[in-house]
Model the fold of this input.
Amino acid sequence: MKDTISCVDEYIQNILTPQLTPFLEDTSDIETIVHDVHLRLVDAISLWNEQEVRDTLFLPVTEEAMYYKPYAPIEIRCLVVLCIRNSLLETYASYPQDVIEDKHIPLFTGEAIQYFRNMDLGVASHHLLVRENNQFLLLKQNYPVAWNALHHLAFSKKRQTKFPPVEKEELMLEELENAEESTEIGKEVTSGMDATISPILASQLKSIEQGVPFFVDSFKYLTRHPEKLFLVLEFLLRKRSMFVSFNYLIANGEAHQRTTLQQPAFSQQAEEQIREKFFNHQGLSKRHQKILQFVSTYFQKTFRKKQRT
Done:
């Protein structure tokens, strides 16, 4: 049995690097992706036996991971989403780079799933010390309200749960100071790993001050950047607002999850897919369904407005 570092190194050297070579002429670009993926894998695998941490981290990527192929335990597929799909690989598969096309992404994720499903990561994790600045443990430390909500939902035996809220002062985001309120639901053409709060996202966040729920199709539709995701959740929950998607409703003190998670929208047909999803109420709690119906009125208005322009 290889230790964790050897498993990660073997994957990097024998699988990921050869996969990247045909797409990237500059070796520094390959090194950038490889270094990023390596750190993510080491930080995640070192926590493999800390189930409360691992499963909390995996909750936001589960809705995407469960549709990944080939078949493997959901934990393996979540690892691939968290550490490989949600890495700087995304930067080179997004505008303005676009050197790796969408059709090629399953080649990267599929090979990774095949590789790691054959590894006993529970045993392998014993060979690796948890880094002091482990990026995933820092999420727990820096975003306690968001972490608390995701943790309770991840370990709830029911699809809806109530739990003691974490009381913290509201977060202040500089990007919101000059932002205009907006209820428009859309996805910006940029890398999912962009860590910044864009003007469109800032406007949407500011609109919660008028009682408009913050809505996105899915976690990955908001961002693939883990810290940005936790920052937005922390901001919303400390504001006593909520995060609403087709699969989740999360607030500081309660959380709901759809019984059967819907697949996140694809970027090519996202708007049409989102419109159709509003009509599917299967597996939703009554509260989740009611809030989605409220959100849908804003989406329909936005869509009609776009059709007229």
The two ends are 61 Å apart (CA to CA).
